[in-house]
Amino acid sequence: MVDFADDSDEAAFRAEVRQVITEHAPRSRAGRMRRAVEGLSDEVRQEQADWREALIERRWIVPNWPTEYGGAGLPVKDQFILSQELAEAGTWNISGLGTMMFGPTLIVHGSKQQKQEHLPKILDDSYQWCQGWSEPGSGSDLASLQTRALRDGDEYVINGQKIWTSGAHTADGMYFIARTDPDAPKHRGISFFWMSMKLPGITVQPLVNLADQHSFNEVFFEDVRIPADHLIGQENRGWYHATTLLDYERSGIGNSIGTRRQVERMLAMAKELPPEQSMLGRNEMVRLTFADRIADAAVGMLFSFRITTMQSKGEIPNYEASVAKLFNSEMTQRIAALNIKLFGLYGNLVDPDREEGERGVAARAYLTAVSSTIGGGTSEIQRNIIATRGLGLPRG
Ligand SMILES: Cc1cc2nc3c(=O)[nH]c(=O)nc-3n(C[C@H](O)[C@H](O)[C@H](O)COP(=O)(O)OP(=O)(O)OC[C@H]3O[C@@H](n4cnc5c(N)ncnc54)[C@H](O)[C@@H]3O)c2cc1C
Question: Which end of the chain is less congested by CB atoms within 10 angstroms, N or C?
């Protein structure tokens, strides 16, 4: 059963989050859009710095980490409330691969020395990580990866290539998986490592996406030497270390709320615009599609509540997380399509002077939405999981 109600402790935590947002979150729209890094005024930068400080101080950047490792140690429901309130307020959290993936992996599998070295730099957001998983030919079938890590005395020598590595061009370090035993069955010959991105032998080549943005890269390793103590956990157990730990925020509540807010914003703008600039009122299908998209957003929210309810009871969402991922990512694309349809050719214009410029970014949002059904596991893979684990159907 889905549980919507806050108990008294949860209500108190929600009130605290709201108060912190009121007091510290950036006031300007530019300040709330953390991804906008160029052309920000000193005032906006200051707003962002204050908010960052407020999040770090409360350990809300690591709400799920145990307190002994510097986390907030929040119960699942409070983690959900935090994400929910931040999304409702339209503001951001400092979430990255360090807080969501690498840190939790180290807490479980890392040595004492590795924890001491890396966790403090994740907690104060001073060291950025990228994730070296995918390779050409090894995406959905990740365990077929070919990058080699060969033991040579006190070092491993890395050769191979990663692809689609988000943020490799700005990251300080990479955690990655590589093959240490080519003769073992494919899942059993893989190990988990970390390396500095500054080492000799690493080449990062930009990959520009179809929205003309540089966010991911190809990364080449040519005889890159790393100390043997950069191995995390046990040799040849890296596949299990890498896949047992998933992002704490599996409910996708931030995404669902963000989507609902986007539909509401589009609606408000469409009502405001002169009729020749919007298709609303001129095209019956647009009107009805709006109704469908608002219904979609409500369904997305219910999937999120369901997952959190399961987590609160100590159950591990399995195919349920795939249902939510599949639905939310495809919804993102349907909403981007509505945005384009709504503004017709005006959707292709970029209007930098318009702060509430939904229309000006419609075309770019449409293009970036394409990747939502690929990253983090494609829609086909999610459907396979739902069919086999959820419905008990045979493998295709
Ligand atoms: C925005 C974005 C950011 C990313 N960031 C990173 C990152 O930081 N680090 C990283 O390592 N990777 C990253 N990736 C890569 C991502 O993990 C892979 O793109 C994804 O796992 C799919 O792998 P692939 O691209 O090799 O496609 P493939 O696995 O080659 O799939 C090609 C097509 O075949 C289908 N297919 C494959 N296998 C099956 C099957 N068994 N049944 C049915 N259909 C199937 C797929 O659904 C897809 O349509 C990112 C991707 C995106 C889009």
Answer: N
Q: What is the biggest distance separating any 2 CA atoms in the chain, rounded to whole angstroms?
A: 73
Span 307-341, pLDDT tens digits: 888 888 888 888 998 999 999 999 999 999 998 88
Structural domains counted in the chain: 3
Q: Is 388 in the pocket of ligand 1 (CB under 6 A)?
A: no
The finding on whether 182 has its CB within 6 A of some atom of ligand 1 is: no
Phi first, then psi: what are they for 355, rounded to 5°?
-65, -40
In terms of domains, do 71 and 186 share one? no
Question: Which protein residue has the closest C-alpha to ligand 1 atom 21?
Answer: 139
Q: Is 218 a catalytic residue?
A: no
**267 lies in the same domain as 378:** yes
Ligand 1, atom 26: nearest CA belongs to which residue? 139
Q: Are residues 347 and 230 in the same domain?
A: no
Domain, as residue range, for 332: 253-390
Split at pLDDT 50, 70, 90, the class of 359 is low
Question: CA-to-CA distance for 304 and 253, rounded, in angstroms?
Answer: 5
The mean pLDDT of the chain is 89
Q: Is the CB of 203 under 6 A from ligand 1?
A: no
CB atoms within 10 A of CB 376: 13
Whether 287 maps to a domain, the answer reads yes
